[in-house]
Amino acid sequence: MGKVLELINHEFDCECGRTHYVPIREINTGEGALSPTGFERILGGKRALMLCDYHTKSAVNDRLAEDLREHGWKLKVREFQSERLKNDDAVVGTVVLDTEPGMDGIVAVGGGTVTDLGRFVASRLGKPFILVMTCPSMDGYASNVAAVAVDGRRKIFKDCRYPDAIFGDMAVIGGAPFDLIKSGFGDMLGKRTALPDWALSRRMTGEYFCERAAALMDESSMNCVLNLNGLISRDARAIAALTDALVMTGVCMALVSDTRPASGSEHIFSHFMVESALDSGSFISHGVSVGFGTLISTLLYRYLLEELHPAELESITDELLKYLLPPEQVWDLLTNSRITADIEGYLSGEAIAEMIRRCAAPDKRYTILRYLSDCGHLENGIRYTSDALGKIAGQR
Ligand SMILES: [Zn+2]
Ligand SMILES: [Zn+2]
Asked: pTM for the complete prediction?
């Protein structure tokens, strides 16, 4: 976590022209990270509501609660029992009812869902919030955004507080189910197209760009790509590299107050896939859909750079290629991480064509999709991508 610690809890001037500030006080996944003293330092007292779900009961919930109580904490614990917790009106209401006057803050133990819940409620109460991460499944830990379903519709609240501290026990994180690890891997693979999309937007729309954040994301993502075999064998160093990369991603988004360093066309595809799955009563994880979206975006970039190669992009072609991986390599990474096993239903040419068209809509963030659409080559790009995907999937 060395590099990430240089970026948090203090202001600094950056070459991008901005002053960056990430208001997270501590991040620690090392020895003794879950010590009661550290918790008290962050919350400023010993009265807290702890949120968790039963999946992590024996791995961390019981041990942490007992340890805090032995150190004099007045701790109320809400352990959710549902197989797949969903943050909705009722769940948020339950947590609000669990709070008591005089509580010093909230401790949320879990993955994306439980920690979003803690972030949301702590923000509305104006209390400090400690996030205890239990799996390397996504990059939103170090963020101020929470997803909550209101009246049945998923709503993104962008005005929450950052966690005051992020703590984690690597033994717990490394023992997470492989589905969660591969989801985190897919999310990090996504930076291979998020970064070119950001550079493309800077060139075409003059969008703000921070070289430092981009370089950190580039490095973090490659650390995961190069460590996939270690993730599969649950090598401790590989799991630590993925965990660091996911936390670093949140910090980079916080640096620029925007999801741009982490999210481009592959995330637009992901949101489309996640929502379509929800509408049809099925499920696809964020990271798995980002991984698949990365393959589609990479193929569209190959079409752009090898077939179209427009003169106006000559000045940034080397930069785009620095970030992009060959589509064949992306396919192999998806297969080896067992992401392709979850996306078989999405491989039909017509479904992909429709997804690309919908994701190129003018109300979406500027990415390669808007570029191709604006210059009238979207349909050619779709045909190229469908053909190329069929060949890659067939050959391998
Ligand atoms: Zn993501
Ligand atoms: Zn900067």
From this structure: 0.94
